[in-house]
Amino acid sequence: MRMSQAFIPTLREDPKEAEVASHLLLLRAGMIRKLAAGIYSVLPLGKRVLRKVETIIREEMDRAGALELYLPAVQPAELWEESGRWAKYGKELLRFQDRHEHSFCFGPTHEEVITDLVRHEIRSYRDLPRCFYQIQVKFRDEVRPRFGLIRGREFIMKDAYSFDRDEAGAEQSYKLMVQAYERIFTRMSLDFRMVQAEAGNIGGNFSHEFMALADTGEDLILFCDACGYSASQERAEVGKTDPPSAGEEKEAPRERVATPGQRTVEEVCGFLKVEPRKLIKTLIVQAQGEPLAVLIRGDLEINLNKVKRHLQADSVELAEPETIERVTGAPVGFAGPVGLKLKILADQSIRGIARGVTGANAADFHFINVKVGRDFPEPEYGDFRLARGGDACGKCGKTMREMRGLELGHTFKLGVKYTQALQATYLDPEGKETLMVMGCYGIGVTRALAAIVEQSHDQDGIIFPLAVAPYQVIVVPVETADDQIREKAEEIYQKLTEAGLEVLLDDRSERAGAKFKDADLLGIPFRITIGKRNLAQGRVEIKRRGEKTAQLEPAEMACARITELVAAARAAEKPGDKTIDE
RNA sequence: CGGGGCGUAGCGCAGCCUGGUUAGCGCGCCUGCCUUGGGCGCAGGAGGUCGGCGGUUCGAAUCCGCCCGCCCCGACCA
């Protein structure tokens, strides 16, 4: 492609709306433009990259035996009512009506539609297993779209759905997808980790996230270097830690002290001059409407997912102030376990506290010197805390590290959640109606593009991995007015293109500096520079984007050399088959 | 939804507090010359509902009210 014919509106200055690298550089490189909050146009250069990302995904999904199809983006409300999600999904679901006043939504995901299709079309065990996928635009009306393509409202997603005869088959399908995912992200040269995850809105009983490591990532991931355990913060289990104060301090009689207006951990600690870790924080939660108390050390945060899992409840949320007042007899901020007539769960962190501080279940009063087991019965212990770096690993007890991550993909073992709701059954060999067992697997395609840029850029712009670069080579004639230079550039451009490479020829009559700046900004992996002095000696310059120095090559060797370099770089990016089978 | 910030030319900004000819600057864009190894120089030029509506005033980009949009933090979330 000749740059004079292309449409690559690069920006010299930073658009003020962009703060993170991927957003900024994709805008500056002329790959995307914003239409509205969280809604972007993808320009030709960006589209080329996106297509490459999609191609990698297609190749690996096909290799895993998944079948590509295309499902409607506009979906009838009835289907969502059948699965129960019309009521449950909330405001993220964009709903609207057609001219007949029938309700529809713009699909944020496609479990309902695919399950509907499959229940009508698959009747026999002979037709199973099957895995379908599509690459398509989704819409989720996010509360807060941000960071450009990282969290858009409209975005492109690859979603796949597997249907199996039984749990064992579903596990096999899941494994296949996980392997495909590892190959996909490896081929994109992404630095990623697969972590255990919470299933969230999609549901199901088992799930992993694929996280690109990035400081701008919105999620925290926890790792254990010792045993390899890795999980999202929402999910990460924390091992038993030593009792924080047992043995250190003698017990003392419990006392009721006035703490007027001191509600938060911070306030109470300031007022009573104690460390947050001496506090026993008492949270009133509701599990399916049923109130109960959860205790946790004052310096820690609770993870309601863990409470939910422990109780095997469908929903667990913090109680409303009215409920708290009703069950504790005190306004918010003064709840405590002493004398509380509720089921009490406790995080391991409060085990053995001998002189703790708790609310007194009375306005403006706290207890000090509270001893667990003496002043209130030993509660039901569990792991309910939000994991942080430095916490003990839930598997081996060694210390975990935390890192920021950007969710690229999410895999779920759904079980029969949707097949049951929509009655997707098949006849087994004995002629018995049986529910299909389902899995679903998503990849944020547009987000993957953002993640690649996030992980691979420098001061000057993007550094695209070869596999997804919009063009592999950019040919830069330094003086377009010079016939010799122009002709040589033209010749190299033609030859490389004929050799099957994707080449951009900067035939604009810009100055060298401007061309170099743009070439760097766009992140094209290889640059061939043709200048007067070198050409006089029959040489041209070859430079790899991201490397400081360039190599001089005889002009007639340039094409062969580039072809060689591209092939070598391509090979280096390929996933080794070995790394996949762990 | 809570907190903070912003909306003036394609992009980045000044002007607003303290109302007053024709609303400025840099970059980009167009024309010409010059130049050509890291966004060069010179000359000329085009481009504006000052986010919208309403109000105050002789007069509003500027003051007041309402609304809309965007960005950041938080809550939330695949």
Can you describe this structure?
This protein is of the alpha+beta class and 582 residues long. The chain is 28% helix and 28% strand. The strands form 8 sheets. Strands 3, 7, 8, 9, 10, 11, 12, 21 and 24 form a 9-stranded mixed sheet that branches. Strands 16-14-15-17-20 form a 5-stranded mixed sheet. A 5-stranded mixed sheet has the order 28-27-29-30-31, with helices on both faces. Helix 2 crosses helix 11. The chain binds one RNA strand of 78 nucleotides through strand 21, helix 13 and helix 14.
Summarize this structure as a short list of keywords or feature phrases:
RNA-binding, 582 residues, nine-stranded mixed beta sheet, alpha+beta, disordered C terminus, globular, single chain
Quick description:
This protein is an alpha+beta fold. The chain contains 16 helices and 31 strands.
| Low confidence ranges | 578-582
Question: Total helix count?
Answer: 16
Number of strands: 31
Percent of residues in helices: 25-40%
The profile of the biggest β sheet is:
9 strands, mixed
Distance between the amino and carboxyl termini: 42 Å
SS-based class: alpha+beta
What is the CA-atom radius of gyration, in angstroms?
A: 29 Å
Bin the strand percentage: 25-35%
Principal-axis shape equals: globular
Rounded mean pLDDT score: 91
